[in-house]
Design a protein that fits this description.
The chain is built from six helices and 23 strands. About 10% of the residues lie in helices and about 35% in strands. The chain is mainly beta. It has a six-stranded antiparallel barrel with strand order 3-4-5-8-7-6.
């Protein structure tokens, strides 16, 4: 059926919901490549999709998004977003199982994250088997858009085609995104609230991409429906699994240097830490300090410290205690829609 709805800002949206539990015989009779029916492909894929719940609920921010399993041991690929900025991330499997997930790692540049739940032998997509799509290819998009699926309800399935494969880059007056690279532009309304992190497959249910976050052109006010090809992010996912982009956690017995870095020694101040997870925005910088000479500015948001994710002021301060004052500090910051690498080198 075709269902009209409105986004948080009141603008109308139309989404085509094709559930695995279709009652219409006309839909059930659709065939793919003369083999499996459309509903069979959807039913086979649904067990690999998960519903993710975390932070949100304020100012129209949805507290849910989508993801899909990429290993039998419970690794989940999803979109990097504020939903994951929570001490408690809940994942529902297709059969209604409710599990707690931990963040393995994330990469703001690719706007993806990997979560981990407990499990063995779970149905999943193999990244090595992902397919490459061409313009005109028929696709299916699986996601929990609008939060229609809770517990064991099936997620939504949209049917469409790849309209184009083009560079997705941030520039003034266009679609702003941290991601730089090729993207599948889709003719289906895939990038609705909650759909981020969902799976894009070909008409046979083979993984092709991950649905991106909502993007709207500041010039034309048009929404872009797109997915990131697995081939563009596969290396990053492997690096996350290998521990390159890891959360800011340390072994309980890991020793700290006697003299370590602090905000004061670096010459920067963060915004007041009033909330349990206050984002580490820079409030002020001493122009004569290490941070000032390196080019750090007020309103910069610190995302990584030495490749460790720091999601709050507290985590950033704690991470500095593990870095000797004589060693440089590598920061990844977000300035507007731009990601910048900054190295803070202490003076001898």
């Amino acid at each position: 059926m075709i269902k009209a709805s409105r986004s948080a800002n009141g603008k109308p949206r139309i989404a085509l919901f094709l559930s695995a539990l279709f009652a219409s015989s006309a839909v059930l009779s659709i065939s793919v490549s003369g083999q499996d029916s459309f509903s069979e492909i959807a039913s086979q894929t649904q067990p690999k999709i998960v519903k993710i719940f975390g932070a949100g609920g304020l100012r129209g921010l949805e507290a849910y998004q989508s993801g899909f399993l990429i290993s039998g041991e419970g690794h989940i690929l999803t979109a990097w977003s504020y939903v994951l900025d929570s001490d408690l991330i809940t994942v529902y499997l297709h059969d209604g199982q409710k599990l707690t997930a931990e963040v393995v790692g994330m990469d703001p540049r690719s706007e993806i994250a990997v979560l981990k739940i407990s499990g063995q032998g779970l149905p999943h997509f193999a990244l090595d088997d992902a397919v490459v799509l061409r313009p005109g290819a028929k696709v299916l998009a699986f996601s929990n858009m609008f939060g229609v699926a809770l517990g064991n309800e099936p997620v939504s399935v949209l049917h469409g085609v790849v309209a184009a494969k083009a560079e997705l880059s941030a520039r003034r007056g266009a679609f702003e995104s941290n991601y730089r690279g090729q993207a599948y532009v889709l003719d289906a309304m895939t990038n609705n609230p909650g759909a981020a992190g969902g799976a894009l497959t070909d008409a046979r249910g083979r993984l092709a991409g991950i649905l991106g976050k909502e993007l709207r052109s500041s010039a034309s006010n048009l929404w872009l429906n797109y997915a990131l090809p697995i081939g563009e992010i596969k290396t990053t996912v492997e690096e996350i699994l290998a521990g390159k982009f890891r959360p800011a956690t340390h072994e309980a017995n890991q020793k700290k240097p006697k003299q370590h870095h602090t905000l004061a020694t670096l010459g920067l101040n963060l915004v007041p830490d009033f909330l349990p997870r206050t984002p580490p925005f820079v409030e002020s910088v001493d122009a004569r300090s290490t941070a000032g000479k390196a080019g750090l500015r007020p309103d910069d948001l610190v995302l990584f410290v030495n490749s460790r994710v720091v999601a709050s002021c507290k985590l950033l301060v704690d991470e500095l205690t593990f870095i000797d004052r004589l060693d440089p500090v590598q920061l990844t910051i977000q300035r507007g829609q731009e990601l910048i690498e900054i190295e803070l080198v202490p003076e001898p």
